[in-house]
Structure formats: C-alpha cells, structure tokens
Amino acid sequence: MKLQRSKIKRILPKFGYLAIILILGGFFLKTFLWEQDYLLNKNGEVRATNVVGTEVEAQEVDETEPTPEEVADFTVPASNPRYITIPSLGNVWGRQVISVGLTRSGALDTPTNIFQAGWYDQSAKPGSGGAIVIDGHNGGPNVIGIFKHLPNAKIGEKVIIERGDGAIFTYTIVKNDTIPLDKSDDYMREIFKKIDGKETVTVITCTGEWSQTRQTYLARQYLRATLDQIEIDENTPITEEPKIDNSESTEIEATLSPEE
C-alpha cells in the first residue's frame, strides 16, 4: 500500500505539469487565432508585402525614389492633384500624387512606390470645396517613405497641393491625430467631412509600433488641413473654377479602412 501511494505521489506532479502545458498551449493557440482574425478584419500595413484593409493582400512596395526628371515630367488631368508639399517635413517636397481607388476588400488603396502619395479618386478635387483624401506609406522594409514623419507636423503649418493645371492650393493644418488601430475604422467616417465648412484635405499613413504577430502598425496618423489660399498663374488654363464652399454637407458618406 505504501509502495502504491509512493508511485501516485511520483505520478501526480507529472500530470500537473502536463495539465499546465496543455492550458498554456490552449491559451497561446486561442491568442494566435484571435490575432489572425483581428488582422483579417482590421486595417493595417504588412511591411514589404502589405496591403492595409479588411483583408491582407500581397503588395510589393517599390523603394526606388523617382528621379528629378521623372518628377518634372509627371502629368495628371488638369483638375487632379499633381504634387504635394509639406514644407515643415523635409522629405515631403513636390512629391508626386497618383490616383488610387479601393482594394478588393473595400479598403483605401496606396501607391506601390513609397515616395508617392495617393489621392482617393472618389474624394474631392482641389478647388471643389469638398473633402480631399490623400494617403501614402511611412516606409518600406529598408527605406523610410513619404509620410514617415507625418506625426511631427504641427498645427498651423502648411500643406500645399499643386493641381495638374498648375493652380496651387495652400492649406493650414488644424488637426494631426494618432488613432489606435482598433479605433481607426470609426475615425475614417470623419475624413469625408469638411472642417468649419472649408475645403479640407486629410493625409493618412501608418504609425506607431510594428506588431510582428499582427504584421501591422498599431496606429494610424490623420493630418487634417483647411484651405486658406489659392494661387493661379495668369497663364494657367482654368478647367474647374476654384471655390470655397461654406456648406456643412458631407462630400462622401463611406466607411473605409486606410491602406498604407
């Protein structure tokens, strides 16, 4: 009897260790599956292969900086944004702006090149009096991107957009918010609303810590600026008369996920 009890005493700790291992294993498996589901249902940027949105789509980013000649020769339709400049951020000076739409999952797309900005083609155009949406990468696997330093921009600083016809629109920054990833979808509703009835441009990028598990940055940066100056050269052909619309109406009602 004593021998049997001795065996039980030796066996019990082993079962205890096994139970602990199984419990921990179940916990980590549940956490892993939750994170995978989170990634598939939230927006985020997968570094080097990423597309940010409600589903992960493979996208190879281009880290080749356009040459001065390529930038100078870049053209867009007359009423579209052509270049963007944020003077206080040294690396955002006369950067090309290309048109982007939505990904297959309905998320806001981004340019492939990390040095280019993307203008959402269903948002307003400069001079229309509406809400303009622009996004871009904060970097690739080896090189910082166009909006890496966007969080450093301060209230009162300027955002300058040049249109395809040469008209220049200067906006004053009124907000620059860092929004946690789990609240980003809700914040997206705000970007299609003007501020104080003025034409408004919103610039979006990824920021915050990089989550290796989720393969995404854990925050989004939303810089918002309102129009205060329009410059039109005498030789600039005007295809769409610039105006400042003071109505409070929303330009577009949509819920999108930013893809950087």
Helix/sheet category: alpha+beta
Return the CATH architecture: Beta Barrel
Question: Can you tell me the residue ranges where pLDDT is under 50 for at least 5 consecutive residues?
Answer: 31-58, 238-242, 244-257
The CATH C-level name is Mainly Beta
Top keywords for this entry?
eight-stranded mixed barrel; alpha+beta; Sortase, Chain: A; 26% strand; globular; 3 helices; 8 strands; 260 residues
Set out the fold topology.
Blueprint: H1 2-41, H2 68-72, E1 81-85, E2 95-100, E3 117-120, E4 131-135, E5 158-163, E6 168-180, H3 181-188, E7 200-211, E8 216-231
Parallel strand pairs: 2-3, 4-7
Antiparallel strand pairs: 1-2, 1-5, 3-4, 5-6, 6-8, 7-8
Provide a compact summary of the structure.
With 260 residues, the chain is α+β, with helices and mostly antiparallel strands.
How is this structure best described in words?
This protein is an alpha+beta fold. The chain has 3 helices and 8 strands, in the order ααββββββαββ. The termini are far apart. The model is unreliable at 31-58, 238-242 and 244-257 (pLDDT under 50).
